[in-house]
Design brief:
Layout: E1 3-4, H1 9-29, H2 34-51, E2 54-66, E3 69-75, H3 90-104, E4 109-115, E5 119-126, H4 129-138, H5 156-169, E6 175-181, E7 203-208, E8 215-216, E9 239-240, H6 244-254, E10 257-260, H7 268-276, E11 279-292, H8 298-322
Parallel strand pairs: 3-4, 3-6, 6-7, 7-10
Antiparallel strand pairs: 1-2, 2-11, 4-5, 8-9
């Protein structure tokens, strides 16, 4: 059953009702422009629906009381599509492990940062583990056409900002960092050191994904129907391989342990002792997780906005055509 969780329900309801009332009035009054106002009515209705954050039941997450700030830094460059997590892409292994991290640290504040050509704060610190799980389910590799090379340390500055900001707010809460990647550095400049962050990090893991043999990468594209592997300029399919040396260096700089991940080795055994230092996670007690589906409305909204923009452009061209020229 769909549930709704608007951030500011009264404000959303009032503004939405006024906007819909305006659209309804124009639908009646502007008889010659009913299609335009019908389009705007649909746009407003979809925007209101998105603001109400519709969600479906998304399974269950454990309840717990863990006092910690957990930062998950996830590689989303094209190389995480390499199919050497068994026969699956590396990103599948990362998704599974982040779910286990959310379970192990249920009740703690968790944040997710992704990085490829740039670093993005995907989930600010929150104790809502379902938000983290939901985001990971939707996470995709960087679009190949947009890639400008990836530095393994591109998330350094954003991670530092979040660590310092949260430490100022919760100075007694330990900071735990999980860095998930394959160590491939394709940027021209050498990576920045994480060494200056070691004093801000209490513990964590650098988790490595991939194999020395490597794997082919299905290309990420704007076209959902495109299904091909990334080509090597020298010929054949490009192969991505793990760089464990670079990952170990990052672990040493952060002052945490390195752990190579394998589909046959569950990560829960490594996480539970670490989580137990900050509280007790009762995995037998659970609460319903939410799978937000507001993003489904983004497509229709984008199409309606494009239609509105095209209509506006045509109106402007028509207006220029009937206005007298300067000097006439």
């Amino acid at each position: 059953m769909i549930s709704f969780h608007p951030t500011l329900p009264i404000l959303v309801a009032v503004v939405g009702a006024l906007a819909l009332a305006l659209c309804a009035w124009q639908l009646v009054a502007a008889r010659g422009r009913r299609i335009a106002w019908l389009r705007r009515t649909l746009l407003v209705a979809l925007a209101i629906a998105m603001a109400f954050r519709p969600a479906l039941p998304g399974g269950e997450v454990p309840t717990a009381s863990v006092s910690a700030r957990v930062f998950v830094v996830v590689d989303t460059s094209q190389s995480v599509a390499a199919e050497d997590w068994g026969s699956e892409p590396r990103l599948e292994g990362m998704r599974d492990d982040v779910v286990e991290i959310a379970r192990a640290f249920a009740g703690a504040d968790i944040s997710v940062i992704s990085f490829d050509s740039q670093a993005l704060l995907r989930v600010p610190l929150t104790d809502d583990g379902s938000a983290v799980i939901e985001m990971m389910r939707a996470l995709r590799p960087e679009i190949a056409q947009q890639s400008r090379g990836t530095s393994v340390a591109v998330a350094h500055d954003l991670l530092q900002t979040e660590l310092e900001r949260s430490a100022a707010a919760e100075p007694d809460s330990p900071a735990i960092v999980f860095y998930l990647g394959d160590g491939e550095h394709t940027a021209e400049e050498p990576p920045q050191s994480f060494g200056d962050l070691a004093g801000l990090v209490d513990r964590g893991f650098v988790l490595g994904y991939g194999t020395e043999a490597g794997g082919r990468m299905r290309i990420s594209s704007f076209d959902p129907n495109e299904d091909r592997y990334l080509a090597d300029p020298a010929g054949g399919d490009a192969i991505s391989r793990i760089d464990e040396g670079r990952l170990r260096t990052i672990a040493d700089e952060l002052g945490v342990s390195y752990l190579h991940r394998d589909p046959a080795l569950p990560i829960a055994d490594a996480l539970e002792p670490m989580a137990a230092l900050d509280g007790a996670a009762d995995l037998d007690r659970t609460e319903e997780a939410r799978l937000e589906v507001a993003w489904v409305l983004a497509g229709p909204i984008a199409l309606l906005l494009a239609w509105e923009g095209l209509s506006l452009a045509r109106s402007l061209r028509s207006t220029r055509g009937i206005l007298p020229k300067e000097g006439a």
